[in-house]
Specification:
Chain B: GO terms for molecular function: ATP binding; ATP hydrolysis activity. By secondary structure, chain A is mostly helical. Chain A has 24 helices and no strands. Classes of the chains: A mainly alpha (533), B alpha+beta (58).
Chain lengths: 533, 58
């Protein structure tokens, strides 16, 4: 009898050793953010009045679509913990999913693509040992996550928490986590590259989010297709339903079994979705340096463009529900000073959020320069008659073009959908101006990326930490009650938030100045430093 | 005693026939030379022997 899991404990140790720093950082980051947030809640919502206000801002279709829904007014009035869960649950579930996708994709296709798996598999070990070990490691990570978050919440002990609900909150994070771990492991068998695996998995996450958004607004059963929909249905801190956790575990088991089966029947390095062969000859465009750079990045740019159109259109579609919701409720309408104002506020918030998201593909485009250097490909490029300024300039130009494209897509999708669903559609000029104003912030990120690549290429990835910081400020900034300068550290908070705020040229010029100076320093130092190999 | 024995291993990648009927026997202590031009299927054979790829057996 052949043991297909032979030496799995050794493989598990090997993987943990490789990834211990990443795992530690993820778990520590999670713990710090959750505990810091939950600690702030009692002081932000001290009395019934503030909680009632919270319930009103939460209890409308737009917010249901964005952050999900599971409670009613009474729940918010009775416990502070329910407020915390309502506002943070979906956000943390998505981050848990992202953590699982990144780690599993690295342990499965990532290692296979780098050739590590082939070395390991040449030794007398079972065929499923490596994949089995990866699943074991990610399960341990999710159990740790559940335990750490649960203990943290229990120890913080805000109004409405007991040990069962605290650990349920932790467990559902871990539960949805293992589902996405299993989805990624499954997709890793289908795709042939680590990048393909990540793109497919994030695609599933985005669809899960949107399906839940539509389900929560219109049809509850629809939400139950999405793992994120399950995650939102624990009623944690009120009824404490455990069935979503069990469903997650069962789904993860089934998907993992599927991944194991596909892994057994396929060849190493092969996938079930094979990439199509390229053209035999390069086009004229591809032979130019900028064309080559653009060609290299086309897949991520297209994927992100589709993603952004999908999101903006969905939220634009919800504007209709928002309008009728407030029209039906004269009391609320009075309270929020007219429906158009609510639509306006929602669009402003949406624009800030979408701009942060569209900064990702723009930064990816510029960061590709660093990736090419790490992969030792950039030296082939630089050995030709082309200056470093030009090579770097091409990547920056591509990043700038990407950001303009993405912002235009956001504005176009939102505006286009609003003309279809609203009686009084959004003003095209306003919405495009709002979207393009955020370019100033995105370009600072591009400038910083250039600066990092030129000056300190070893730590370029901190640009992602900065972007994550921007997300934290936009989602949790008000709740965490940080000093103002914490907010202004994120460039996205400096941009005038149209159309709730008036347009102001000063911050925009400041941001453009920063992006110009950082890029300039980046270009100069990139020309001076050694290319790493 | 034979430590390794194969009979008629075949392998195709799509329509491309990479291996067709590989027979080999390796005895204990024997040094087995494995030579051939590029694309002859040396690595493919080894990958199948290691179980990293699935061949066809007759």
């Amino acid at each position: 009898m052949v043991n297909i899991f032979k030496e799995m404990p050794h493989m598990t140790g090997l993987l943990i050793r490789q990834l211990r720093l990443k795992i530690l950082l993820w778990l520590a980051g999670f713990a710090v953010i959750i505990v810091a947030t939950v600690t702030a809640y009692p002081s932000v919502y001290p009395d019934e009045e503030t909680r009632r206000g919270f319930a009103i801002t939460m209890n409308n279709p737009a917010m249901e679509a964005m952050v999900g829904s599971s409670y009613n007014l009474q729940d918010f009035l009775s416990t502070t913990a329910a407020l915390f869960a309502q506002e943070t649950m979906l956000f943390t579930l998505v981050i848990a999913a992202v953590m699982n996708i990144m780690l599993v994709s690295r342990m499965t296709r990532g290692d296979e693509e780098e050739g590590r798996t082939e070395f390991i598999r040449s030794l007398p070990i079972g065929r499923l040992s490596y994949l089995g070990a990866a699943m074991l490691v990610i399960t341990i990570v999710n159990i740790l996550l559940a335990a750490i978050i649960g203990t943290g919440l229990w120890a913080t002990d805000i109004d409405g928490t007991d040990w069962q609900s605290a650990y349920l909150y932790g467990s559902i994070l871990g539960g949805v986590g293992v589902v996405f771990a299993a989805i990624t492991a499954f997709l890793a068998q289908l795709a042939e590259t680590a990048r393909g695996t990540t793109i497919l998995s994030f695609g599933v996450l985005a669809v899960a989010y949107l399906v839940r958004a539509f389900g929560d607004v219109s049809n509850d059963t629809l939400s139950l297709i999405s793992p994120l929909g399950w995650g939102m249905r624990t009623n944690v801190f009120i009824q404490n339903d455990w069935w979503p956790v069990y469903s997650c575990v069962i789904a993860a088991f089934v998907l993992t079994a599927g991944a194991f089966y596909l892994h057994l029947v396929r060849d190493l390095d092969a996938g079930f979705i094979s990439p199509k062969p390229g053209n035999e000859h390069a086009s004229i465009f591809l032979k130019t340096p900028i064309g080559f750079t653009a060609h290299e990045q086309r897949v991520p740019i297209i994927v992100w463009a589709v993603f952004i159109v999908l999101f903006s259109t969905s939220f634009g579609y919800i504007l209709d529900d928002l309008e009728s919701y407030f029209a039906d409720n004269p009391f609320l309408e009075k309270m929020m000073q007219g429906e158009s104002d609510v639509t306006n506020q929602f669009v402003t918030l949406l624009m800030a959020m979408m701009s942060l998201i569209s900064a990702v593909p723009a930064v990816i485009s510029v960061m590709a320069l660093k990736k090419e250097e790490t992969a030792n490909r950039i030296e082939n490029f630089l050995s030709k008659a082309i200056s470093r300024t030009r090579v770097m300039g091409n990547y920056l130009l591509l990043g700038v073009a990407t950001s303009i494209l993405m912002q235009a897509l956001i504005a176009l999708s939102l505006w286009g959908t609003s003309t279809a669903v609203l009686n009084q559609p959004l003003d095209a000029g306003d919405i495009f101006l709002a979207a393009f104003t955020y370019l100033a912030a995105i370009w600072v990120l591009l400038g910083l990326s250039i600066l990092l690549i030129g000056l300190v290429p070893k730590i370029t990835s901190i640009i992602w930490l900065y972007l994550i910081y921007g997300f934290i400020i936009i989602f949790l900034g008000d709740v965490l009650d940080l000093p103002d300068w914490f907010d202004s550290l994120s460039v996205f908070e400096i941009v005038p938030a149209l159309s709730s705020e008036a347009f102001d040229t000063k911050p925009v010029i400041l941001l453009l100045g920063i992006s110009l100076v950082t890029s300039l320093v980046g270009f100069i130092s990139y020309n001076k430093r050694d290319i790493q190999n | 005693m034979t430590v390794l024995q194969t009979k008629g291993i075949a392998k195709t990648f799509g329509t491309f026939q990479a291996l067709d009927g590989i027979d080999m026997d390796v005895e204990p202590g024997e040094i087995y030379g494995f030579i051939g031009p590029n694309g002859a299927g040396k690595s493919t054979t080894i990958r199948i022997l290691l179980g990293n790829m699935h061949g066809k057996y007759f």
